[in-house]
Amino acid sequence: MFKNLNLAALGISGRQSEVIELTLSHGFKGLDLDLVEFGHQVQASGLPHARRLIDSARLRIGSIRLSLDWDCDTAAFDAQLEKLAGEIQLAQQIGCTRAITDIDPGSDNKPYHENFELHRRRYGKLAELLGRQGLKLGLGFLAPLGLRNDRPYQFIHTADAFLLLLKSISSPNVGVALDLWHWHLGGGTTDQIRSLAAGKIVTVGLADADPETTAENADRAVRRLPGTTGVIDSAEVLSLLAAGKYDGPVTALPSPAVFDGQSRERIAKQTAESLDNVWKAAGLQQARAGMVSRV
């Protein structure tokens, strides 16, 4: 596994050259890419020019995030997939092998079981499209009550329900976009992570929680840097992942609020240090080199 940087999640941005400089300066070996923005660069200057800095820095693309409207009719959904095909092909051309998306925890017009079957079918379609280009699909769920309490119909927001949906999808390239903050608030356990088959974890996002944070009040809570409070044991999960030969990105995903008023340089530095500390606590070494081995 390797240290991965997602600047957008940290609330900062910059030109591609600035992003890559931050990534390299603080020991990250990969970064998440905004494929829409990158596609605009390709249209303006061509693929070789748009990717030259990423190639020269020898950075890996951690993942791309897919944004789809799931609560639409079949024709509209298929039209979205057709439009998405070009973006997925572009992702493959730059060496990206992982795409992620979150499950909407509520619906305006579909009861739970109807929505479950809809998502099962449509994730299968999306996985097939991604699989043609050699990409995995990572699914994540959203635990906070505030993201669903005003919806007529509740949907998946716990680890148990999420794992049931995952089991129902037969596509071999579908797995988990493991966000430990949502996993913790949704009642997920380390044993459930351990039970996942090899290769079923697509990406890993780390954040810590305050002791008083629950799914009921999480919409007002702050995601802390991993290792800050110890409520979520990121080190234990990293150790487990290393034992299972997980080879994907590990991304710190705190709330931008924890960096209020700080510079981009300071934000990247703190984020890198938090990952290094968790790596060491897990009994791993060579985090800065992007390698993982037991101490």
Concise account of the structure shown:
With 295 residues, this protein is an alpha/beta fold.
The helix/strand class is alpha/beta
Please state the CA-atom Rg, rounded to the nearest Å. Answer: 19 Å
Structurally, the number of domains stands at: 1
Taking pLDDT < 50 over at least 5 consecutive residues as the criterion, the unreliable ranges are 287-291
Description of the structure:
The protein has a single domain, classed as Divalent-metal-dependent TIM barrel enzymes (TIM Barrel), CATH 3.20.20.150. It is built from eleven helices and 13 strands. The chain has helices at 16-25, 35-45, 47-50, 52-57, 74-93, 112-131, 159-168, 180-185, 190-195, 234-243, 264-281, and strands at residues 2-5, 30-31, 60-61, 64-65, 98-102, 106-107, 136-140, 153-154, 174-179, 201-206, 249-252, 284-285, 293-294. The strands form three sheets. Strands 3-2-1-11-10-9-7-5-4 form a nine-stranded parallel beta sheet. A two-stranded antiparallel ribbon has the order 6-8. Helix 5 packs parallel to helix 6 and helix 10 (234-243) crosses helix 11 (264-281). It is globular and about 50 Å long. Residues 287-291 have low confidence and may be disordered.
